[in-house]
Amino acid sequence: MWNNRPIIIRIKRHENVHPFIQALHAQHVPLKRVVFREQEVSFETTMHYLPKIRRVRRRFRLKMAVFYADELQVFRAQIWTLLGLAFMIAIPILCAQVIWRVDIEAATPELEQRLGKTFHETFQLETPLSQKKLPSNTVIRQKLLEQHRELSWVHIDKHGGRVILRPQESPKQTEQTTDKLASHIVATKSGVITHFNIQHGERKISVNDTAYEGDVLVSGVLESGTDQVFVGAKGEVYADYWLECSFKIPTKITVETLQQKQWRVLIKGIHEEKVDYVQRKDLPNWLSPYVSIVEEQQTKTMQVELDESKIESLLIPLLHEKVLRSLPAKTIIKKENLLQAKWGNGTVEGKVLFLVNENIASPIQGLQGE
Questions:
Q1: Which of 176, 260, 361, 368 has the highest CB neighbour count under 10 A?
Q2: How far apart are CA 204 and CA 237, in angstroms?
């Protein structure tokens, strides 16, 4: 097995060639494809018999050249080739079971740093690590959204041994503020209290308590003996509650994704004058009428067909984003459970249960009994 590699031996024509070949037959050396030409004689054998052939050649004083017969073959039936092929297959399989890097790609370096710090402090993972030790996408997303309320979603992509976290910030919303303090802050929905952000007033409920619609959460009136002192109530009270939503969407949808930003030079008279851009470079007055340098944000449109394999990666994020846009500012969705999904007639319909964390505080004017 070790020396069965085929070889071709070429010998210059000489009167001793025939005795040489007869001597090889006498020593039971197998010869294949023996060809006699005007200038040379060639035949095939294996590496196993090469030492014996060389001893006979020296006796007849012939000039001999040796070539491998399988140099043009891609696969050779040799032990080292088989071992190399086994390693070539095994190494990628073994490496795919290991997470080598966890990267964060955010809109700003500051957000990447904050999210990276939260990820390492929460999960305390050191790379490289086994795939089994990495928490599920749902757990990672829930923990990050709980601690970064400015985010609406965290996309998690896995490419071989690399995990990429792409946070998506919530759309900026303006809130109307008033300097007038309310008498009380009451609950607009039922839920379990998670945390407070109170500037004025006295809490009437604790964290992890269940509040019901209409309950007083923060009182702006303090009692001192028989007197009541108005201090006003102002702040936010966040609570978790479950929100069930039904959906019905086509299985074939058009998705637009943002591509990498790029700078573009526009020359008047050659390029279109009206171009959507993110920002524009200031140029000298003598150059600006003729040339513009703008940063464009390109989008890519593609057709996607929804199926069961795209529930986690596409359907749930679409529903998450749609529901989040319908909720008040600073609301986050901690978790989502797909209750049911049914495909038919070119559509998919079903129900999703969202765990929502929302500011349920509503200020009211006028003194009320508690």
A1: 361
A2: 11
